Fold:
Amino acid sequence: MNESELLKVLEMNDWHDIQYCEQFLTLMEHWEEIDEDILIQVFSKMSAQECKPYIEYYFSDLMTGIPDDNLTLYKIFSSVKVTLMEAANAIHKDSRALGNLAYELLRFQEWLMKGDFLVCSNASNEKIKKVSIFDALILFRIDQLNAGKFDIDFPDDLEYRIDEYEYDLDEDDKVSILDDEDFNDFQEEDEFNGLIDEKNPVIEEFE
Structure:
C-alpha cells in the first residue's frame, strides 16, 4: 500500500487532514503499511501541542486493557509514552526528535502487534491460542463484560527495551513517568473505544 492508498483508506486527502484522535488510532491500526518516512511526514506537519494529544489518547486507550494488577505492562507502556511525549515536545527544537518519534512508535507497534507472547484460553470450549499483547488487551476488555469467558496469562517477565534520548528541552517540556495519569490511575474506566473491533479475528477464533 503506497501513501495515496493509505490516505484513501483513512478518508483523507493529505496528512494535514488529521484532526481527530480517532483518525490517529486508525492510522496506527495500519502500522504495517506505514514506513518511517510517512510517519515523519505526519508528525512534521504538527506542532508539539497538536502531536501530544494523539499520543496521549492512543496510550490511554491502549492501557484501559491492562489488568489493574499488572504493573509490568503499566511500566512498559508508560515509559514508552514518556519517551514519545518528550520527542513530540522536541520535534521543532531538535532535528533528531522527529526521526526518533517515528522510529520508536513503529518499533513499539511491532512489539505490540506481532509477537505471540501470551497464552489465552476460552473457558467455554477450552480452546487455547497464543496471542499478541494487543490481542490480549482486547480480549481482556471483552472479558470484563463477559466475566470468566477468557483466561489470559499476562506474565510478569515481559520486557521491552526503551532507548534513551536527550533533548535540549525547557524544564516545563520534560516528561516524567511520575506525572503520567495513565500510570497513576489503574482504575480508569474503559469506554470500549478506538481499538476494539467487533470483527477482530482473534475474537472469532475463540468462539
